[in-house]
Structures
1.
Amino acid sequence: MSGFLFKNFQMLEPGIGELRGGHELLVEGETIREVSDKPIKSASATVIDCGGKTLMPGLIDSHVHVYLSEVSIRSLENMPLTLMTARAVGLLSGMINRGFTTVRDTGGADWGIKEAIDKGNIAGPRLFIAGQAIGPTGGHSDSRRRTDVGLRCHCCNGMSFTMCVADGVTEVRRAAREQMRQGADHIKIMMSGGVASPYDPLMSLQFSMDEAKAAVEEAEAFGRYTCAHAYSPEAITRAAHAGIRTVEHGNLIDEPAAKLMKDKGMFLVANLVAYYAMKERASEYGMDADMLQKNDMVIEGALRSLEICKRAGVPVAYGSDLLGQLQVDQSREFLLRAEVLSPIEIIRQATTVGAQVVQMEGKLGTLAAGAYADILVVNGNPLKDLGVLQNQGRDLHAIMKNGKFHKQQLAA
């Protein structure tokens, strides 16, 4: 079987945490066939000389929105799905160009865009989807204006395509089942207010315990899991007792809530860069003052949430959660986390922990034999300079996903 034999590199295996030279790596088909500190023999593989650069696993962003192509999501109200999809193509291309070979969409992306990537119709990262994010009337998933009666045409209102409203246990069960019928990898529910939603207070508690448990039960019955949008300790605590697996955001978490998450075996998917980028530039793109005021409430706790979870032993995944024109800042998350974490800790969050979140441990986020061949060749050492992961992938001289090169600037 033909493939690719990588030589002359410094290997960054996240589980080891230091660069190691003298290794070779063989890719056959979609997977890594062999990694060895001795020469690997292959009669048919194309030899790739990495020129002494760093070879590492592809990155995982555990919280994106590939269909939210506007910072002011109200702009999506009159946007047809055809235009949303066309814009998503550009956003997905940018993500893989930055080295993110896997992303987890937490509201909006459907099986169609996932299938288009899998079939090679468009370029983009491997995609795990939630379908529509589910929330209660008046909550973070309720896209209606105060003057709206009912919902607008589904195919002409991008906002209604990315989220849905369900009230009571029966409606939540039906909504969760519908997302799984349409190919969802996980179910997203709303447990607290949000920044980008205009009418719900940030500290509001949204789905009740029974509603959240219904979503969890349905997801688990289908072999899936549930993630929860939650900022406050109260919302996080309710999510934990309901059986939620991952908390998204969690900026206002406190020590007791973090301990509970640890005891329950939960993950936090943090996303600092979204708040910093919104504070700096969101008003340019139409985000209103009320939303920006809520953003100010959560930005203060962003770095503190990482420190609290580190002390409690809660695994934290890398997430960006950027909207529209701000998505170019995706890799800046590395630099913000570096205020309180070491480079290897952050890289593990974007590889090892991300793989655990999407339930692909040992298959993603690693250079181990048998893993998918998602590989980056970086001009520089990310353990000493996270700047080499910036600049829209400029220092990534090779990007491979599933054993196929998306980008190749190395000698062969």
2.
Amino acid sequence: MIRRLCSPLLSSSFFLFGARATGKTTFLRTYLAKERVYWVDLLDPELEDRYLAHPRLFYDEVQLRANEFDWVVIDEVQKCPTLLNYVHKLIEQKHHKFALTGSSARKLRRGAANLLAGRALLNELYPLTALELGQDFDLLQVLNWGALPGLLAFQTDMEKTAYLDSYAHTYLKEEIFAEQLVRKMQPFRRFLELSAQCHGAQLSYRKLGRDLDLDGKTVQNYFQILEDTLVGFLLYPHHTSLRKSLSQVPKFYFFDLGVQRALAKILRGSVVERTSAFGEAFEAFVILEIQRHNSYSRSGYTLEYFSDGTYEIDLILSRGPRDVTALEIKSTQQVTQAQIKKFSDLADSTGAHRKILLSQDKVERLHQGVECLHWRTVLCQLFP
């Protein structure tokens, strides 16, 4: 059994958001194993239809069995957002505690759902981290196949390919089409493949629109759908002015490397060490690890990147103007002085108080004000 780093507070009701197959249901069954739980599974189409037609039934059923449980779990609550009105009522009047899972915040917002105004704390669950995998962690495996928990059940490349291809297809069918988030499926299907090929690169909505025969606003909305369904996130450029930062070109990262490779249709070509593809995948892996640890530890860092128009710094972590860390990510196993100097000179213009060059190099040192650290050391230091 893998122990997850996610740790919702049990003193209050909470939301647990996460993309499909990140293990939300399995996690809650373990996390609430010592509690008495009343489970509402909205993936059951019959139950979903019943509550959509008569949401009041949920309130009456919980009231009827109130003495039999301590927690109510509603799995995939976005399938019936009106239930949140009754959840709100039960929290206020009866002091019940709820664990509410979901894979689409967009569906809740679009339906003007009651998000409980702080009465339920927000948590997110991601694919597995290197720390969670422990001795089972294999860098090349994660760069090639990602870290969805379901992959642990498969041994062969053929099985893993089939699983991830199926995931990509299921996402299109269930998350996008069934939830009616786009009007036309075919343009969005082509967008997904192209956006997966642009993973980690600066976005140009207008250029992507030309390639897809769509307008830039539609492409921008498509990326917003991916964010809202927790399939990825936008990384904005670092700037001392928030307004200028948001007006510049963002990058987009998919939530899992295996899913990204499946959508880009490159699963059948392996990521090999000492190639540009390995370097790009390693950079994305580190950024995803930091995003997950930042969320789980509630560290409160804002994640950005920095560009002066010619060169880039991969990641800027900030918690206000007096707590800024510049991170350069290298896949190399031996950092050079030239790499250190180039990074140091550029990092000075970001206002960073700490400069870290992160790599696979196990010889850690301080040089020209730059901390050269192994990637595992950085995770332990930033998120103790």
